[in-house]
């Protein structure tokens, strides 16, 4: 094995790697947005005064927490066409990843809501804020601040989970290994190292950003 | 929720509003369900005969799904046992007094938590053969699950061992035990008891991740369903596709829900147990629950 040849192989295939990198990034960004919005709504529903809403959100979270992400992909991409809803692989992947992650965003956020001192919510009720107002203006802003690290970790895990799209015809980073499987040992090793580095290029800045945001918005109690 | 702090107990007006809202919401959900059912019905998916195939031994479907389920459970069980053993070793290594051992265990744990599980499995399945090590899909899947989960479990074990009161190990040293004795006889048994709920919860994660075998063609539940679909499509087209997918998905969900309930039950029992609950329960981080290589990347 010649290291030089392997590196040359990686350079020759750089456009492929770059495309895969962008696909992973785009997939994660879209799914992340969906997960953040839906997860916040679910968390609000789980603490709301309306019992059916609480039940519905709990049901959603329980189902997705206990379903493998591969099964979610499978259903959205192979199952939905059976009721004549054809999503396409990319849309299916974004939706699967987003819907799945939303359950965990909800869980992370809910623990943050529980961590907000009871006095805060009581005080906002006492000055006459409605449930929606106290959640929006008082509780959620504090909850978000306390859950920056776990929430960040959920999104980092989501980037890594986006690798499952490789099994569903999306040419993202992980899919490079099976696609370039005809390369020789050294070349494929170089691809593996390239893929691992590419993931770290996404996740390490995220981890760094999370710890910076955490320090900046931390609430001193 | 016993005493809600976020909102006042709804009064008569609010209760009326909630009732109206609930009615409208239920109607919407019913409409959605009806839409799905009508779509399914129009495609003939609700035909009882189509579902009967799942339970009819003459078609070979129950046998195949059973075999696939056995494979799934086998990967999860073998993976869990090996990952627990390796995780224990790593946790002890991480707490070792020797800097080099600590460092090596730390590198291992951080590395496998930083990359997606699927990449590890791909590396075992596609790359190792290039170096003359042929692994079956089963071995690659189990290997990946063990490498990743041992790293996660090591961190859980470490937290568990560190959560034991210092007096325990001090007393053990005081009566003349050696380092290994303190670890094996005093710390690990107590830590294990405290971590039991988390271990069961991790089993759920492992079971979920075993579905990654689908992608490398291991004959687990999803692949089993898929192969049945392909087999039937020769003579029946897509007649049984939907039913088989639903069956495979439901089996996963039911097993995982049951395991999660068990974890919750054990956790409640542990908390009631005075011996085990001296310190708060060890929580499983949300991102680990996501599976697929969740777990924090160390801050840069």
Properties at a glance:
heterodimer, A: 221 residues, mainly alpha, 78% helix, flat, B: 300 residues, 11 helices, 0% strand
Task: Please give a quick description of this structure.
The complex is a heterodimer of chains A (221) and B (300). Chain A is mainly α.
Task: Describe the overall structure.
The complex is a heterodimer of chains A (221) and B (300). Chain A has helices at 3-12, 14-46, 51-65, 69-79, 89-115, 118-126, 131-146, 148-161, 176-179, 185-217. Chain A has 221 residues and is an all-alpha fold. In chain A, α8 runs antiparallel to α10. With 300 residues, chain B is an all-alpha fold. In chain B, 72% of the residues lie in helices and 0% in strands. Chain B has 11 helices and no strands. The radius of gyration of chain B is 25 Å and the shape is flat. At the A-B interface, α3, α4, α5, α6 and α7 of A face α1, α5, α8, α10 and α11 of B.
Give the low-confidence spans of chain A. none
* Series of secondary-structure elements of chain A, N-terminal to C-terminal: HHHHHHHHHH
Number of strands of chain A: 0
Most extensive interface between two protein chains, with residue counts: A-B, 76 and 69 residues
Q: Please count the beta strands of chain B (DSSP E, at least 2 residues each).
A: 0
Tally of alpha and pi helices of chain B: 11
Could you give the distance between the termini of chain A? 58 Å
Radius of gyration of chain A: 21 Å
Label the overall shape of chain B.
flat
Q: Give helix % range of chain A.
A: over 70%
Secondary structure class of chain B reads: mainly alpha
Query: What would you call the structural class of chain A?
Result: mainly alpha
- SS summary, helix count of chain A: 10
Task: Characterize the main sheet of chain B.
Answer: none
The largest sheet of chain A, given as strand count, sense and whether it forms a barrel, is: none
